[in-house]
Amino acid sequence: MIAERALRTLEFYKIRDEVAKYCTSSLGKAKIDELLPSTDINEVNRLLEEMDEGAQVLRVKGNVPMGGIFDIRMHAKRAQIGGSLSPMELMEVSSTIRASRILRQFFEGIREEGDIQIPHFLEKKESMPILTALEHDINMCIDDNGGVLDSASSTLRTIRQQLRAQESRVRERLESLIRGKNASKMLSDSIVTIRNDRYVIPVKQEYRSHYGGIVHDQSSSGQTLFIEPDAVVQANNEVRRLKMKEKEEIDRILQMLSAQVQEVAHELFELVEVLGEIDLILAKAKYGSAKKCSKPEMNTEGYINLRKARHPLIPIDEVVANDIEFGRDVTAIVITGPNTGGKTVTLKTVGLFTLMAQAGLPIPALDGSELAVFDQVFADIGDEQSIEQSLSTFSSHMVNIVDILTKFDEHSLVIFDELGAGTDPQEGAALAISLLDEVHGRGARVIATTHYPELKAYAYNRPGVENASVEFDVETLSPTYRLLIGVPGRSNAFEISKRLGLPEHIIKHAQSFTGTDRREVDSMIASLEKSRRESERDAEQSKELLEQAEHLKKDLEEQLKQYENQKEKLEEKAKEKARKIVEQATREAEGVMSELRKMQMDQASSIKEHQLIDAKKRLEAAMPENRVLKKAAKANQTRELKPNDEVKVISFGQKGTLVEKVSANEWIVQIGILKMKLPETDLQYTKPEKQKETRTMATLKKRDSHVKLELDLRGERYEDAIVRVEKYIDDALLSNYHQVSIIHGKGTGALRQGVQQYLKKHPRVKSYRFGEAGEGGSGVTVAELK
């Protein structure tokens, strides 16, 4: 356990008071009052992890529902010994149970969402007793203001109904008296009021006998008497009787509810404990957010590495952040230099951060900071003069130091402020060196301050000891409070005197009294400080350049992201435009092809040349805007195109057959009865459709021909079917077939009519007929070719 003196000296209790301001309940504040540093690293890590979970929840959710929580421990204790709780106390019990239920639902919601991991909060959620039955029973009887509801029992409801009716009758009787003849003359005011829990009217003193009855009160002047007239005495007695019955029933209800609280008193104590712990965790997290703190890493090796550490009790706009690292190769730091430079603040920062972290509190330092868990922290800081014990400052310090020497070990952090001060400088410096050797030699981590120049050389002669100082700006004649590790402090008396106007010859004369070694050491320290400042300036410039580069990189990445997004949108827009163009072109092409087929079916002979030319022009007019699909068509090409291949013309959405290639990228394509020259990028190879095998009816079959003796059109659209019939008849004629079969099915008859109409007008079709019974009947048309 950490010594009380260190907790007080390092101002740990002040930090506790600051954290308590962020609690939302008295339970959390009670937990803060019990908060002390732990020396078990597992417990310390758990406390810090809990705090970090709280910080994550607050960052993601903004707040945690902690309202309605009361310290109900005394209520539960009184119920345990058979006491009856008041309605307000029962309401606080119910409110606390309801708050825990809402909190459980809140944490369960976070678990289901899965955005953050909160194992410690979920563990606490599971440890909260579920007391919904008690909450329900109390809510049925007690309202939010601590009043007992009519619904608490049927008996209470009946009594109150009777009471309201009786009170109404009393008021009506009194109001009739107020409205009576000459009442305004005899009454001080025309109102019905209550005195001693009985209904009365205000009567002027001189008319007291007119109403008779009982005087319950009088005004301060004595001119008005509050009289209960004889006419309502019995009615008022009934009101009083009903009120007594009401109180008896309410007492019974409260005793019943208190007995239920007694049954779960132990669970209520557990619930209060968990709620207080959660409030404490969230208060730590809120404190950390307000003070810009971070969660430190912890170790048991005595290693301390604080990055931009700020003392938490100094206003954030005034405090100077420092880097402090020691505990591995260097296990002791000696800070030298004049007073009022900020040495003590540095000591307290290291000690206080250690206590805070071991209590599970975040520290005001950058991420990546690390602290050690010590078994003990000892601090000898400040003016410890004891009037009561007649001890001087030196003696008081020495009493404390002697106590420290009897208790510390290698797992301790020891802090000395102005070691050896308050006595003869030479003897004080010697004692300081001896004490540092003792504490450092026994393995403790030690950080000490001194203004003795003799200790400047101490670190150079002791392995594991490092010099440090607090920077002093001779230009402004004030300390900067920046810690300089590795640079011993020096007196700036000559520089300050010179700045303040002391004559140069006096300064030189004073310097002659200092030894040569002293001047050389001071010169060396000054050179070290100058080199340090230059190095830090260069590092700061490098840091700024790095930050600028990172910002530039971030900006470029953002611009690239915006460009990619814009590019995607433009591509989508272009694709949509292209799709619409293709659809329009396809509709136009289908229209043209449909007109051609109709003309062909309406005319026995071939279509006139000018009609074909006009159709070609209309088809070509639909093509130019579809060049945007060239790349897509090329990418979709499955193999090299050859004559007689069936292809799809992308621009028109029509099928055709390749006749011949007329240039590197152009083909003559047969589309129905039209032949057109089209670019290869507008053509897409399609596999020939497989035909279903049926019994052939042809009398002649060309042995090596790929053209079948039948054409199956079942399932085809009308327009596509006629196009296939046209090509099929041409291919059959080229194969010297004399008879072919066209399967169109029975259906509605539309396809059969279209096929036969086409065959009727074709000049090379000799005749056609329906199939015989064995050939497919009316679902097949057999054509005889010339």
List the helices and strands and how they pair.
Elements: H1 4-9, H2 12-20, H3 26-34, H4 41-61, H5 73-80, H6 87-113, H7 119-127, H8 132-141, H9 154-178, H10 183-186, E1 193-195, E2 198-204, H11 208-211, E3 214-218, E4 224-228, H12 233-263, H13 265-290, E5 297-299, E6 304-309, E7 322-326, E8 332-336, H14 343-358, E9 370-372, E10 376-380, H15 393-407, E11 412-416, H16 425-441, E12 445-450, H17 458-461, E13 465-473, E14 478-485, H18 493-499, H19 504-512, H20 516-602, H21 609-621, H22 630-636, E15 646-649, E16 654-663, E17 666-671, E18 674-679, E19 683-685, E20 710-712, H23 718-734, E21 739-743, H24 750-761, E22 765-770, E23 780-785
Parallel strand pairs: 5-9, 8-12, 8-13, 10-11, 11-12, 20-21
Antiparallel strand pairs: 1-2, 2-4, 3-4, 6-7, 13-14, 15-16, 15-19, 16-17, 17-18, 21-23, 22-23
Helix pairs in contact: 2-3, 3-13, 4-13, 5-12, 5-13, 6-7, 6-8, 7-13, 8-12, 9-12, 20-21, 23-24
Estimate the strand proportion.
Answer: 15-25%
Q: What structural class do the secondary elements suggest?
A: alpha/beta
Q: What is the strand tally?
A: 23
Instruction: Please give the CATH architecture of the largest domain.
Output: 3-Layer(aba) Sandwich
Number of helices: 24
Major sheet strand order: 10-11-12-8-13-14
Biggest sheet details: 6 strands, mixed
Average pLDDT reading:
83
- CATH topology title of the largest domain: Rossmann fold
Quick summary:
The chain is of the alpha/beta class and 786 residues long.
Description:
With 786 residues, the protein is α/β, with parallel strands linked by helices. The protein folds into five domains: 4-131 and 264-290, MutS, DNA mismatch repair protein, Chain A, domain 3 (Orthogonal Bundle); 152-257, MutS, DNA mismatch repair protein, Chain A, domain 3; 297-512, P-loop containing nucleotide triphosphate hydrolases (Rossmann fold); 580-595 and 606-685, Roll (SH3 type barrels), CATH 2.30.30; 710-785, Ribosomal Protein S8, Chain: A, domain 1, CATH 3.30.1370. The protein contains 24 helices and 23 strands. The strands form six sheets. Strands 10-11-12-8-13-14 form a six-stranded mixed sheet, sandwiched between helices. The protein has a five-stranded antiparallel sheet with strand order 18-17-16-15-19. Helix 5 (73-80) packs antiparallel against helix 13 (265-290), helix 6 (87-113) runs antiparallel to helix 7 and helix 6 crosses helix 8. The longest helix is centred in the C-terminal third of the chain and has 87 residues, at 516-602. It is flat and about 135 Å long. The termini are far apart. The model is unreliable at 384-390, 624-635 and 692-705 (pLDDT under 50). Homodimer. Binds to stalled ribosomes, contacting rRNA. Residues 711-786 form the Smr domain. ATP binds at residues 337-344. Residues 525-602 form a coiled coil. This is Endonuclease MutS2.
